[in-house]
Design a protein that fits this description.
By secondary structure, the chain is of the alpha/beta class. The protein folds into 2 domains: 3-115, Rossmann fold; 124-240, Rossmann fold (3-Layer(aba) Sandwich). The chain has 13 helices and 8 strands. Helix 12 (207-219) links the parallel strand 7 and strand 8. Helix 11 packs across helix 12. The chain is globular.
Length: 241
């Protein structure tokens, strides 16, 4: 049996715990033994992106200690997964633990399709759905087809592409705080594209993007909802009952 350690990320832990539980449900249904290491904190990305390298290094070292010995580490975020697998080496050059860790860290959809070789988890979802490509997942992890294949195999779900699927939603962590006017303009462009699809739900693999998009949809008084891919795949999951 494949043993998986969940790294749920700050946003999921503090704001969207249902995403973490949905991820665990899908992985268990796929035959994995799932664990949650309670000592986990952050991936160090906020401090890293803000230029606080010493503080980020401390957080990265804690991550390495916490997940020492894990067979696989699965993350419901392309952004956080990219930080771990691409940028820990910048913070901790020469630390062999980083190079040992990198091949064992996977974004959730990436783990399903590339490691478990699963594209149909047995879920169903009734509705028209569009998909948003998050920046780090697409550009650093090269994740594009996997989430779409998983969605296309959900019974009752109809996937329609938006014309700005690969454009940034404008969140960017502290970017949205430091440059709110630019961030707001970017997300308005995004929700205009979502509305043009006629979809009732927009799906992504990053809760931070979905938080940004849902906020804009709410301000526009739109009835469109956002869902993480894990939540869609866990919906009426027969194999986990």
């Amino acid at each position: 049996m494949v043993r998986v350690s969940l790294f749920v990320t700050c946003v999921v832990d503090q704001v969207f715990p249902n995403v973490g539980m949905a991820m665990a449900k899908v992985l268990e249904a796929a035959g994995c033994e799932v664990e949650f290491r309670e000592a986990q904190t952050c991936c160090a990305q906020p401090a890293f992106n803000s230029g606080y390298r010493d503080q980020a290094r401390t957080v990265a070292e804690h991550f390495l200690t916490t997940f020492e010995g894990a067979e696989y580490i699965v993350v419901p975020s392309g952004s956080c997964c990219s930080m771990i697998s691409h940028h820990f080496a910048e913070l901790l050059p020469g630390d062999n633990r980083v190079h040992d860790l990198e091949p064992r860290v996977f974004e959730f959809s990436q783990f399903l399709t590339n490691v478990l070789k699963v594209e149909d988890v047995g879920a169903s979802f009734d509705g028209l759905v569009t998909y948003h490509d998050s920046c780090h997942a697409l550009r650093e992890l090269k994740i594009k087809d996997g989430p779409r294949k998983l969605l296309q195999n959900v019974r009752g779900l109809r996937l329609v592409e938006m014309d700005t699927a690969e454009e940034c939603c404008g969140f960017g962590g502290t970017f949205s705080v430091k440059f709110p006017e630019i961030s707001g303009g970017m997300v308005r462009t995004k929700i205009d594209a979502i509305e043009r699809t006629g979809a009732s739900t927009v799906v992504s693999i990053d809760s931070s993007c979905l938080m940004q998009i849902q906020g804009a949809l709410d301000r526009a008084r739109s009835k469109i909802r956002t869902m993480h891919l894990a939540e869609v795949l866990a919906n009426t999951l027969k194999a986990a009952e």
